[in-house]
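Notes from hallway chat w/ T.B., transcribed later so I don't forget. T.B. wanted the structure written out for a chain they're using in a teaching module, and asked if we could keep both sequence and structure tokens in one place. Agreed to drop them here.
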Amino acid sequence: MDPDPETGALLIEFVEKTALLRRDMQHKGELEPYAARFDRMEQKLAALADRLEASDPELAKALRAAWKMPGRTLAFRNAEHQKKA
């Protein structure tokens, strides 16, 4: 499995958005009924990152970071985008 850079970027954005939703739900106290589902999503994401580790370690690292620290990864991506503009 070796996704092209554009597919990898879309995957990272999807993981970020999902993690941001999880964080917002947690802050609002709405996460508890869905905690098990988010845990399973995290397990599947970890399995995907483990699978990608051999062929694309940077993508695997970015996916893990997007899940654990979505606000940070989003801020870095926005800063990079502003530099290019």
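Follow-up for T.B.: The chain has one domain: 5-84. Might be a good example for the class.
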